Fold:
Amino acid sequence: MSYDKNQTLCFCFDITYGDLEKKIKDEKLKSFDDVLEKTKIGLACGACKDDIQIVIDNMTNTL
Ligand code: FES
Structure:
């Protein structure tokens, strides 16, 4: 699934899809739990959790 990297993914922490991709790459995050634990994104309201998974799937598919 594709997405616009400039679009906001997490409104609670003001993170775009591109921001999350960069964090996953820079911090070498491998799983959904890794992302939540290390970045805290998704741990406020939780509404963006499905979108976090989409970014992870998208990145692991293109590696
Ligand atoms: S939108 Fe990401 S935790 Fe609320």
Q: What stands out?
A: The radius of gyration is 10 Å. The mean pLDDT is 94. Helices lie at 17-26, 32-39, 49-62.
